[in-house]
């Protein structure tokens, strides 16, 4: 998609600052000489990649680059990250319930199918991370997306993988997957309280088997 590529390059070259509002669809169409539906498709692609966030009635805003790591990120311990996720993600999914589009929900369902079909732990972890990223994207809040992705990058480290491997049992995988399904269903039903409850339960469960705090 030519317009998507052009806008992505301009975002990388900092034509708009992080958090800055982009021109309207009409203005972009006039600037680049394309129809508004072409602009809309390009913006949808950029939003799916986390490069921008769109708010109905407010406009389109540039996000922090997905690969931009804050200073000191490599020093975060897995326990600190899980504790932070416990504070962030229940409220994150609550906001996702309120703002998720049908496209957002379709992305969540795709990730669920991926975790259902995963043949091994690396495959499951890949789709698990993608599902949590889908929850973040569904908030349509650039700051939340950036924070969530910063925490998610710690999951790629060896020490995290060694701890998470403790969950690689049939029973624990089944529990994790049941929680995943319950969270997505809560989003589909627009049930903020249930989504928040299940997400908190999910992260506490992960914290328990990673750090030996299971009850």
Which architecture of the largest domain per CATH? Up-down Bundle
What is the CATH level 1 assignment of the largest domain?
A: Mainly Alpha
- What is the averaged pLDDT score? 87
The radius of gyration computed from the alpha-carbon positions, rounded to a whole number of angstroms, is 18 Å
SSE order, one letter for each helix or strand? HHHEEHHHHHHH
| Number of self-contained structural domains | 2
Extract low-pLDDT stretches.
Answer: none
Protein name: FCD domain-containing protein
InterPro entries: GntR_C (IPR011711), TF_FadR/GntR_C (IPR008920), Tscrpt_reg_HTH_GntR (IPR000524), WH-like_DNA-bd_sf (IPR036388), WH_DNA-bd_sf (IPR036390)
Keywords: DNA-binding, Transcription, Transcription regulation
GO molecular function: DNA binding; DNA-binding transcription factor activity
Polypeptide structure, described:
The protein has a two-stranded antiparallel sheet. It contains ten helices and two strands, in the order αααββααααααα. Helix content is 68%, strand content 4%. 28% of the residues are buried. It has 215 residues and is mainly alpha-helical. The longest helix has 22 residues, at 78-99. It has helices at residues 2-12, 25-32, 36-48, 78-99, 102-117, 121-137, 142-154, 158-164, 170-188, 192-211; strands at 52-55, 59-62.
């Amino acid at each position: 998609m030519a317009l998507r590529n052009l806008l992505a390059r301009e975002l990388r070259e900092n034509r708009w600052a992080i958090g800055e509002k982009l021109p309207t669809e009409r203005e972009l169409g006039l600037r680049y000489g394309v129809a508004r539906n072409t602009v809309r498709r390009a913006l949808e692609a950029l939003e799916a990649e986390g490069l921008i966030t769109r708010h109905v009635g407010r406009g389109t805003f540039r996000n922090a680059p997905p690969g931009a790591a804050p200073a000191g990120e490599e020093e975060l311990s897995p326990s600190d990250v899980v504790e932070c996720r416990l504070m962030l993600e229940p409220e994150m999914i609550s906001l996702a319930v309120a703002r998720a589009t049908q496209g957002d929900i379709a992305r969540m369902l795709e990730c669920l199918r991926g975790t259902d079909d995963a043949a091994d732990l690396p495959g499951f972890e890949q789709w698990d991370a993608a599902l949590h990223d889908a929850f973040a994207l569904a908030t349509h809040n650039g700051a939340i997306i950036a924070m969530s992705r910063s925490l998610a990058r710690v999951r790629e480290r060896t020490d995290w993988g060694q701890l998470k491997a403790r969950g690689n049992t049939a029973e624990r995988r089944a529990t994790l997957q049941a929680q995943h399904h319950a969270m997505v269903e809560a989003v589909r039903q627009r049930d903020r309280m249930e989504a928040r409850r299940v997400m908190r339960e999910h992260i506490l469960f992960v914290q328990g088997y990673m750090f030996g705090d299971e009850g």
